[in-house]
Amino acid sequence: MNETRRGQPEVPVAHHDARGRSDTRARIQEVAVALFAEQGYEKTSLREIAERLDVTKAALYYHFKSKEDIVRSLVEDYFGQVDALITWARAQPATAATRGEILRRYVGIVAEGDEVFRMLHQNQAAVTSLAAAKNRGELFRERMSSLIGLLTGPAAPLEERLRAAMALGGVSVGWMFFADQVPDRAELCAAVLSIATDIAEGGTLRV
Fold first, then answer.
1. What is the rounded CA–CA span in Å between residue 170 and residue 176?
2. Among 32, 39, 55, 184, who pairs with 59 as Cys (CB 3.0-4.6 Å)?
3. Is position 1 within any domain?
4. By residue range, what is the domain housing residue 157?
5. Total domain count for the chain?
């Protein structure tokens, strides 16, 4: 049986239920993001992540074999959230209410992942050199293209598609710039959503 650094017995990770594995994985990601942000991706080791978690390296290796695996998982989780949004939106009627809900949910995704996005930006030179980063830009573009199409329709004029693209891009830029300046996250979410909606709908729809 594995032991924690305090010497207390640890339930073997392989015997945890699905919820336990998910919680442990999320905790590893959280601690890794914090350390990558504090001291940089390249200067952080798996050993330090394990020590911060107060687990053995073997327990950490069960979930992630390398730092690159952790970064890959963070990006995949973001893409998974966007994919779920796209799947949901495709099953809805093409109405103003649906467009408003797409933007609302996308703001939520960005707000939830702001620490990850900030860490990736701070460590851009290191993480963009990773093998997993090679197709990241194209994958991101594909998903944004899908969201733009869902916000405007497949045959929308260029100006409408530009509005949608600028609304989605503005959500990320606006949130990342002001997230550490505005104490009330709900207030910031509401403001970002309102402005993104005005941009996407040309000022005609207020969610």
1. 10
2. 55
3. no
4. 67-201
5. 2
